[in-house]
Amino acid sequence: MSGKHINLTLKIWRQNGPQAPGSWEIFPAKDISTEASFLEMLDIVNEQLALAGKEPVAFDHDCREGICGTCGCAVNGRPHGPDRETTLCQLHMRRFRDGDTLVIEPYRARAFPVIKDLVVDRSAFDQVIQAGGFVSVNTGQAQDANSLPVPRNKAEEAMDAAACIGCGACVAACPNAAGMLFVSAKVSHLALLPQGRPEAAKRALSMVAQMDALGFGNCTNHKECEVECPKGISIRNIARLNREFIRAAVASTEKIPASGGGQ
Amino acid sequence: MQLDSKIPGGPLETKWDRHRFDMKLVNPANKRKFEIIVVGTGLAGGSASAALAELGYNVKTFCIQDSPRRAHSIAAQGGINAAKNYPNDGDSIWRLFYDTIKGGDFRAREANVYRLAMVSNLIIDHCVAQGIPFAREYGGLLANRSFGGAQVSRTFYARGQTGQQLLLCCYQGMMRQIATGQITMFPRREMLELVMVDGQARGIVVRNLITGEIERHAAHAVVLATGGYGNVFYLSTNGTGCNVSAAWKAYKKGAGFANPCFTQIHPTCIPVHGPYQSKLTLMSESLRNDGRVWVPKQAGDQRPPQEIPEEERDYYLERIYPSFGNLAPRDISSRAAKLMCDQGKGVGSTGLAVYLDFADAIKRLGRKVIEERYGNLFQMYHKITDQDPYEVPMMIFPASHYAMGGLWVDYNLMSTIPGLFVLGEANFSDHGANRLGASALMQGLADGYFVIPYTMGGYLGGTRLSEVNTSHPAFGEAEAQAKARTEKLLGIRGKRTAASFHRDLGNIMWEYCGMGRTDEGMTKGLKLIADLKGEFWQDLLIPGTDTTLNQSLERAGRVADFLEFAELLVTDALARRESCGSHFNEAFQTEDHEALRDDENMCHVAVWEYAGEGKAPIFHKEPLVYENVKLSVRSYK
Amino acid sequence: MIWVVRIFTTSIGKKQLMALTGLLFLLFLATHLLGNLSIYGGQGAFISYAEHLHALGKLLVVAEVGLVVALLIHITLAVILFFENRKARPIQYAVDKSGGGGRTFSSQTMPYTGFLILAFVIFHLATFSHHIVDQTHRNIFQIAYELFSNKGILIFYLAAMVVVALHVRHGLWSAFQTIGANHPKYMPFIEWLSIIFAIIVAVGFGSLPLAILALK
């Protein structure tokens, strides 16, 4: 119950459906506890909107502990708001000052069309994974877990990459709306482990082809993705993807599919 | 309602093998003629979808989230148990089995739990083969850690994100099958009705959450893997979307609901800080490996923790349970924390918290080691509370976490409705009255990867199934029902939001049917729930329409089901005339406040059958037969 | 589509070709600068360097053709990538300050500095190249001296060198990243090298006109 209370002005993007034209609406957010999370602040505003007979602001959220990757929108132009390595649900209002104006808008990218208000469609990520972001092993085929040692630092590096929560902040932050950090995190996670090596070449080529087909932009090494990633995933993974890609394209027998391997 | 648990005869160790041999098989060419619906894409639903698709069944998978990768299994932190005995510290399948039975306070089925312990090792093998970056030792082999309720190190982990890594690999397995066309994925769909034809589960009716359209889907069998009902307490560690609705719809169509009063209260959560709070965040139980739990010895001691000298601190878990100490099981640790706060020794601004202190561990191991082990948890704690746990002790308090109860299933994981299978947290089968740490992941994956692929074949191969498609009148009825209910909800046009009703319900449940339950309180709780339900249907306000994404409408439907379910939960709690595991009725306790079981009269699964709107549910009993373990007083002292 | 061509239709393939041609230009810049620094040996040394260079004959033509081809590739890809990237975000953010701090001025201005460099290169070739400018009656030193005596041209040259430096500052480390060379051990060195090399280019080339003017 500690902490103080602040008043804010919210400028929020409202859009009733994928085809509807959007527009800005301005609401006051009064008497917000600085201990509340950003999403709890939106809850409070939504409750007030509902009671005033207006439709609440639609926003995606679920676990509210920074791991499911469901939440996310741009706050003052920054995906997940101003804090480093913090998802929107973990951003707390103590970060803001009394009287601040917050501009809240959905992630903007051709690959992530708006569904409603702050909710966007990120199924493009699923389609990229469908193209090869897995190890082709059927249930029951596996040998004993300890029969294949994995150097500890490789396992740790793989874990660094695997920590991706698929929130889309990298795409949202990239000036080119590129999907490279997401794709490279999955390619890296699996390429670093011996279990992922047999399909590494095919995976890199298919996932990149699929990514291209989905309308993401091209990486121009701005590093914005790394800076905004709530899990601190490094662009070294992008370098690894670049390496994996060219090696697979030139030195493997795999071919680059015409437009990804997914549906 | 007939409760046939279908537990195979013979010695415990060979029951599953024999059962697998006895079940009918579906030949590979015929598998593709079958369609299976899976609802939910957490560890259980995800693994089931992938494993069934790998076998060649046509799978249609549904989830309410935007992607199957979001299911709340992702938030599990600590790890997954298996009886690998890699650390050579005395573990075995039998010990994992025994620990789980004992941890569940002898209210789980022996045969199910033994099977769970058996397949636990296969899960680890499969997960490693899928590329899960489990923690490893310098030699490159897998690392293990100890976890609450066990004296061996059998927990495999991927930092504090084990659930995430396991779920993402399930998800990747599913994506692989989607690419081959074996799974058709329907995200952002909410199940509104179960469709029954000739007494068999043959499909579902769902709402497309984006367009509001009602869709019909037919299949030869339906698998529910829709998670637990912890959100009936409003504040819980569950995701905000977690709900009981799918299970509740199945209950209303005739599936028995088992042991709803067994709800786990997790001891290590970040305390409540305000009325606007939307959820409670779990701090992994693994923290108790190195953290020491304490409160001031003196009630009402307001000094900051650093100023309380060692001799004025009460490390109460170490004091009361010397052999398990800070690793005492969840129900016991939670209750102990509540007891301390009841005695006025709670800390923090609300007095509803205890300390979890790492000072000793940091002194012993160095900050770097602690950072490696718990870095992300400490960071999360710091973000939420604005306090640095490396400097000041964490404050923790118990919160609703996991539902041991769920839809009743037999040994094949089939509910009392033929063709309706229930997996993972949504069923009741393996954890009895209390779940041990790192067992939920194990159970979800066991059900999905290693049980349902066999038992589904047994059902489909051995059952006569008529040709059914979505034009069958049963689908029309179900759709009409679903639409009528949506219209009814939208038509109330009252003055209170679903969220506010939910919050009130949570308060009632926590107050009257939470960690310490009394007959008087529960009776009062029932009355309050009924009143609230009445008010809900009079005064609910849902802004917007049902033709676009409408999160208020979604919430309202779920709260409506929670309101009905809450009554069943309390009814079940009242009917259980004992304290066991997570269920603690203050009338049944020992002199030193430990749960007092009644094995004579209460050693059964309580199964409730829906009797119709406004009628009391019908009580059934599945007696629990212990042939291999001796029921003992569960002591962690 | 044959496999080689297919590589360069992918986003990464295009980027890698950009990186390789970019690295080639960096190499060219380094040799060009080294050669031109002969000015500090006096007029004679400078003229002698130019004569030796032209004496390479066919070898020089090969190099020139190579550079032109690389330039065409670099420019074509730049244009394609630029428009693809714009298309990838049809609606811009209402608030888009400098972002989270990953971007640098030089990374954000790459397309524009690139365009300016192209303009400069055309002007530079038009005023210096032995294919265009008659170098039989005047030696290279005289050509340069006359040109830089014009204040406007002098300033244009100096400004152009700053632009080149900006392009190099992002381009150098970026090329390594794109071909996959990023390791915690050596990447910090490459990032430093980008800055240092950019300064060397700006100062090195920028000092040449001044040195020429000073020599007369």
How many structural domains of chain A? 2
Portion in strands of chain C = under 5%
Count of all domains of chain C: 1
> Helix amount of chain C, in percent?
over 70%
Overall shape of chain C: it is globular
How helical, in percent, are the residues of chain A?
25-40%
Structural class of chain C: mainly alpha
Mean pLDDT of chain A: 95
Ends distance of chain C:
58 Å
Span between termini of chain A: 50 Å
Q: Please state how the strands of the largest beta sheet of chain A are arranged side by side.
A: 2-1-5-3-4
What's the total number of strands of chain C? Answer: 0
Compute the number of helices of chain C: 9
Q: Please state the CA-atom Rg of chain C, rounded to the nearest Å.
A: 19 Å
Integer average pLDDT of chain C: 94
List the helices and strands and how they pair.
The complex is a heterotrimer of chains A (263), B (637) and C (216).
Chain A: E1 5-14, E2 23-33, H1 38-51, E3 74-75, E4 78-79, E5 101-105, E6 114-116, E7 119-120, H2 123-130, H3 152-162, H4 169-173, H5 180-191, H6 200-213, H7 224-228, H8 236-251
Parallel strand pairs in A: 1-5
Antiparallel strand pairs in A: 1-2, 3-4, 3-5, 6-7
Helix pairs in contact in A: 2-6, 3-5, 5-6, 5-8, 6-8
Chain B: H1 15-22, H2 28-31, E1 35-39, H3 43-55, E2 58-62, E3 80-81, H4 93-103, H5 110-129, E4 155-156, H6 162-179, E5 183-186, E6 189-197, E7 200-208, E8 214-218, E9 221-224, H7 245-252, E10 257-258, E11 263-269, E12 292-296, E13 313-314, H8 316-320, H9 330-342, E14 354-357, H10 359-365, H11 367-385, E15 394-403, E16 406-407, E17 420-422, H12 440-461, H13 473-491, E18 496-497, H14 498-513, H15 519-539, E19 540-541, H16 551-575, H17 599-602, E20 604-609, E21 618-623
Parallel strand pairs in B: 1-2, 1-9, 2-5, 9-17, 18-19
Antiparallel strand pairs in B: 3-4, 6-7, 7-8, 10-16, 10-20, 11-15, 12-13, 12-14, 14-15, 20-21
Helix pairs in contact in B: 3-6, 3-12, 4-5, 5-12, 10-11, 14-15, 14-16, 15-16
Chain C: H1 3-7, H2 11-36, H3 43-54, H4 58-87, H5 105-108, H6 110-128, H7 140-149, H8 151-178, H9 187-215
